[in-house]
Design goal:
Structural class: alpha+beta
Helix content: 10-25%
Number of helices: 2
Distance between the termini: 42 Å
Number of strands: 3
Strand order of the largest sheet: 1-2-3
Mean pLDDT: 78
Order of helices and strands: EHEEH
């Protein structure tokens, strides 16, 4: 989990992420290393007691997936 405001890591008690995924009907087996959990704030930068959570899948841009067509060799 990462705070969308300050970028700080947000640590929860054991099992909290599993509970959130169950409530959102998301199968944890569908998540991989390209997925990131982001919250709209954290105790370090906000005063709210509850925060919303979103899951983003980060993928390489088209440029990063293209073969290298130039170089020094």
């Amino acid at each position: 989990m990462e705070c969308a405001r300050c970028g700080a890591p947000v640590l929860w008690e054991k099992g909290k992420t599993t509970i959130l995924l169950e409530h959102a009907a998301i199968d944890p087996l569908e998540l991989d290393a390209s997925c990131i959990l982001v919250t709209d704030g954290c105790p370090a930068c906000g005063s709210k007691r509850e925060y919303s959570v979103q899951i983003f899948r980060i993928s390489a841009s088209d440029e990063q997936q293209r073969p290298l067509l130039y170089g020094n060799s």
